[in-house]
């Protein structure tokens, strides 16, 4: 492919439309504007063509059409991670959002999930059998992008990265072939697609392992942001000794004054500790005691919740927003590191962020295995992640300037690698991995997509 613009003849477009179960759209068609919109509204996607796929066969037809017309293919379910994508002017935007089927096998403790499903499509069917997936903090996130980027959720410290719960995948490779890949069939491709970023084949469905979980002891304690220093130091010390069954975050939050924000939170600046413990409530309260001792919280939502509630526990937005964010793995976090964190977004800072968050890692996330995919173990103690709503170009510039300051201030504690889903400011996925892992990912790309037909960060 030489990257030059390609004209699509009307007859070729009509032939593609006849071959699809779904739809093919060009600019001016009804549904074009809605279909090109990513969940992250910062991404202004202007593809040559949009295919709204409804089956693996549609994906294969799209790949074959792209190859014969000198186009590339950009697969996308929700578009949460669309902002770092390159220009789509010579690409087909392949939307899988209509492919949402979920089938649970309670005997095998597995779920087969189509590539366009969101986690909220899967948590309910699994919960009917007392099971849960290793989903993320938001039910609106697409299963495909989450899995392909590694998958870091509330159950990560006890069960590891979600990508390593994948047993098999149905994919379409760059030659237009539909394949089932697993540890025996195309094992190198199977390895790469588990956390390697997703640019090696187009996944149309996942078969994943589920875990037993009916309920958890979970929730948030929030205080005025003026308490950020003492809460943050206590949280850091607390995370040094909690069991793997407990995952916790620390957030410095500035809730926007938007009407969709509940009134008690609207427009307020708070420091929040949010946690999930998969044991019983009595033990959970004992573990939480050091945090409760910090004083009466402004808000307390802690209690026993049904497993599906974990998909909304973090309070992430339910609707598309224009977000600019950045995330960094931290090798360690001492008292000085916590002081730097509070300095960046605490009570004395005037920042254009909705939140600056620390996630406690460790546990199963640190345990390496030969059976894992490209995302094996973090080798890091914490994840730092911040995001702001870029409601205007000026706000976007201010967020970008703050991200640069965060990088500089937190550099003494920052790891060399990151996680693809959080590394929005990195130019390529390769920089998220150790050199030997990145080299192996490049070799898989060279074997399965030598022409770079699949458009994704690599």
Say what the CATH topology of the largest domain is: Vanillyl-alcohol Oxidase, Chain A, domain 3
Number of helices: 12
N- to C-terminal distance = 17 Å
How large is the radius of gyration? 22 Å
Gross morphology is: globular
- β-strand percent reads 15-25%
Strand count: 19
Structural class: alpha+beta
What's the level 1 CATH class of the largest domain? Alpha Beta
* Largest β-sheet summary: 8 strands, antiparallel
CATH architectural type of the largest domain: 3-Layer(aba) Sandwich
Mean pLDDT value? 94
* Unreliable segments of 5+ consecutive residues: 1-5
* The number of domains: 3
Range of helix content: 25-40%
How would you describe what is shown here?
With 458 residues, the protein is α+β, with helices and mostly antiparallel strands. It has 3 domains: 10-95, Uridine Diphospho-n-acetylenolpyruvylglucosamine Reductase, domain 2 (2-Layer Sandwich); 102-212 and 433-448, Uridine Diphospho-n-acetylenolpyruvylglucosamine Reductase, domain 3; 215-425, Vanillyl-alcohol Oxidase, Chain A, domain 3 (3-Layer(aba) Sandwich). The chain has 12 helices and 19 strands. The strands form 4 sheets. Strands 12, 13, 14, 15, 16, 17, 18 and 19 form an 8-stranded antiparallel β-sheet that branches. It has a 5-stranded antiparallel β-sheet with strand order 5-6-10-8-9. Strands 1-2-4-3 form a 4-stranded mixed β-sheet. Strand 5 (102-105) and strand 6 form a beta hairpin. The longest helix has 17 residues, at 393-409. It is globular. It starts with 9 loop residues before the first helix and ends in a 10-residue tail after the last helix. The model is unreliable at 1-5 (pLDDT under 50).
């Amino acid at each position: 492919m030489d990257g030059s613009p390609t004209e699509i003849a009307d007859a070729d477009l009509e032939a593609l439309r006849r071959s699809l179960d779904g739809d093919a759209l060009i600019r001016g068609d009804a549904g074009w504007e809605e279909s090109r919109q990513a969940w992250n509204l910062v991404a202004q996607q202007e593809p040559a063509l949009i295919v709204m796929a409804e089956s693996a066969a549609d994906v294969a037809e799209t790949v074959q059409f792209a190859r014969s017309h000198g186009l590339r293919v950009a697969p996308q379910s929700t578009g949460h991670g669309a902002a770092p994508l390159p220009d789509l002017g010579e690409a087909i935007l392949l939307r899988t959002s209509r492919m949402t089927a979920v089938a649970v096998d309670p005997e095998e403790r597995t779920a087969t999930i189509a590539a366009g499903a969101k986690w909220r499509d899967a948590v309910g069917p699994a919960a009917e059998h007392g099971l849960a997936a290793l989903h993320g903090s938001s039910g609106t996130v697409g299963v495909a992008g989450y899995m392909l980027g590694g998958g870091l959720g509330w159950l990560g410290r006890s069960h590891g990265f979600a990508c390593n719960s994948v047993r098999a995948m149905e994919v379409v490779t760059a030659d237009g072939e539909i394949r089932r890949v697993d540890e025996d069939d195309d094992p190198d491709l199977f390895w790469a697609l588990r956390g390697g970023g997703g640019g090696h084949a187009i996944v149309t469905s996942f078969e994943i392992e589920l875990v037993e979980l009916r309920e958890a002891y979970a929730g948030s304690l929030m205080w005025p942001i003026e308490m950020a220093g003492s809460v943050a130091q206590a949280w850091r010390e607390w995370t040094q000794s909690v069991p793997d069954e407990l995952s916790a975050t620390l957030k410095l939050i500035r809730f926007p004054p938007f009407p969709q924000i509940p009134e008690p939170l609207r427009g307020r600046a708070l420091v929040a500790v949010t946690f999930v413990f998969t044991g019983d409530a009595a033990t959970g309260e004992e573990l939480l005691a050091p945090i409760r001792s910090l004083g009466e919280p402004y808000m307390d939502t802690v209690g026993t919740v049904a497993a599906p509630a974990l998909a909304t526990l973090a309070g992430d937005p339910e609707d598309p927003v224009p977000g600019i964010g950045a995330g960094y793995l931290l090798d360690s976090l001492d008292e000085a590191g916590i002081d730097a964190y509070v300095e960046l977004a605490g009570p004395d800072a005037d920042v254009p962020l909705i939140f600056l968050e620390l996630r406690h890692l460790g546990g199963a996330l640190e345990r390496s295995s030969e059976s894992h995919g490209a995302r094996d173990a973090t080798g890091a103690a914490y994840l730092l992640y911040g995001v702001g709503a870029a409601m205007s170009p000026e706000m976007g510039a201010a967020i970008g300037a703050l991200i640069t300051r965060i990088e500089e201030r937190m550099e003494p504690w920052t790891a060399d690698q990151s996680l693809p889903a959080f590394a929005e400011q990195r130019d390529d996925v390769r920089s998220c991995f150790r050199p030997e892992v990145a080299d192996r990912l490049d070799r898989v790309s060279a074997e399965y997509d030598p022409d770079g037909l699949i458009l994704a960060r690599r």
